[in-house]
């Protein structure tokens, strides 16, 4: 059976191929947001107490339905009011029920830095991220060869976007030059088994560069865990399902 990451990456290549034809990069460059300055997620994390990046996602491969009817504008505003440091928007339609329009709508109602959380495989998607209002993009270490990671990170920086570089193992830090990384995301979820181990993420900390910001991602289900992760050395956390479900049940 194909691993989920491989399946998603294959799908992404097909989507990008189609999109390049329907909306060329020149058209993306004409979007109003393309020429606006970006907001720094890195500075927001440095200047915050807990560095909470709240995630918007309607569904996921590990959990299926989370909050299928979620309204991105309502939730982005709620996240901002609750004191989030930044917002991560899953823009992948097939696997997470999101879209680039979600990014655009979130941008229209809140002032927080926005991360386009998607599976980036091509420079086209970096242009898209900028055109639809992202301030930062995600690059997943084990999704791409080193050369491609570098190419996407350089373009992101040229466009004023920051890079959240996601790793699952400490050694992956060496795959991309530190100068191209704005934040390191340590993903606690094994993308093959979907098992979550916060301890595995914590164990990576001593092996990561001290001068880079480190974000613990996935499987965080309560506030005391957020505090514990920060006390133990992370600069921030990325929380999706827990916050989405809190919002869903507070509405019903
Ligand atoms: O969330 C998944 O099931 C998933 C499966 C395969 C690839 C990526 C996946 N999630 C993306 C993420 O990194 C998470 O949405 C993010 O870290 C937040 O996780 P959580 O707080 O557990 O919702």
TrEMBL record:
Task: Kindly give the Pfam families that the UniProt entry links to this protein.
Answer: IGPS (PF00218)
Among its keywords, does the record have RNA-binding? Answer: no
Q: What class of enzyme is it?
A: lyase
Q: Which SUPFAM superfamilies does the entry link to?
A: Ribulose-phoshate binding barrel
All copies of domain Indole-3-glycerol phosphate synthase, residue ranges = 5-249
Q: Which GO terms describe its molecular function?
A: indole-3-glycerol-phosphate synthase activity; phosphoribosylanthranilate isomerase activity
Can you tell which superkingdom this protein's organism belongs to? Bacteria
Catalytic reactions on record: 1-(2-carboxyphenylamino)-1-deoxy-D-ribulose 5-phosphate + H(+) = (1S,2R)-1-C-(indol-3-yl)glycerol 3-phosphate + CO2 + H2O
What does the UniProt keyword field contain?
Answer: Amino-acid biosynthesis, Aromatic amino acid biosynthesis, Decarboxylase, Lyase, Tryptophan biosynthesis
**GO terms for biological process, alphabetical:** L-tryptophan biosynthetic process
- The keyword Amino-acid biosynthesis is annotated on this UniProt entry: yes
- Enzyme Commission code(s) on record: 4.1.1.48
Q: In which pathway does it act?
A: Amino-acid biosynthesis; L-tryptophan biosynthesis; L-tryptophan from chorismate: step 4/5
Q: Which InterPro entries match?
A: Aldolase_TIM, Indole-3-glycerol_P_synth, Indole-3-glycerol_P_synth_dom, Indole-3-GlycerolPSynthase_CS, RibuloseP-bd_barrel
CDD domains recorded for this chain? IGPS
Q: What is this protein called?
A: indole-3-glycerol-phosphate synthase
Record lineage: Bacteria, Pseudomonadati, Bacteroidota, Flavobacteriia, Flavobacteriales
């Amino acid at each position: 059976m194909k691993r989920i990451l491989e399946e998603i990456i294959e799908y992404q290549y097909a989507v990008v191929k189609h999109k390049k034809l329907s909306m060329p990069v020149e058209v993306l460059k004409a979007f109003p947001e393309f020429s606006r300055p970006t907001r720094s997620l890195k500075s927001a994390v440095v200047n915050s107490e807990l560095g909470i990046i709240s995630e918007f996602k309607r569904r996921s491969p590990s959990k299926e339905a989370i909050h299928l009817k979620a309204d991105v504008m309502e939730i982005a505003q709620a996240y901002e009011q609750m004191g989030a440091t930044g917002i991560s928007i899953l823009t992948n339609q097939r696997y997470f029920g999101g879209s680039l329009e979600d990014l655009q709508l979130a941008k229209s109602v809140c002032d927080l830095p926005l991360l386009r959380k998607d599976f980036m495989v091509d420079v086209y998607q970096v242009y898209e991220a900028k055109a639809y209002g992202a301030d930062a993009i995600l690059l997943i270490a084990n999704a791409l060869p080193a050369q491609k990671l570098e190419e996407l990170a350089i373009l992101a920086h040229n466009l004023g976007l920051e890079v959240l570089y996601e790793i699952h193992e400490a050694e992956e830090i060496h795959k991309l030059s530190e100068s191209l990384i704005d934040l390191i995301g340590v993903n606690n979820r094994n993308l093959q088994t979907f098992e979550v181990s916060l301890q595995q993420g914590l164990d990576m900390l001593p092996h990561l560069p001290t001068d880079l910001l480190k974000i613990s991602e996935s499987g965080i289900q309560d506030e005391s865990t957020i505090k514990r992760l920060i006390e133990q050395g992370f600069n921030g956390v990325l929380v999706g399902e827990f916050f989405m479900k809190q919002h869903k049940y507070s509405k019903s």
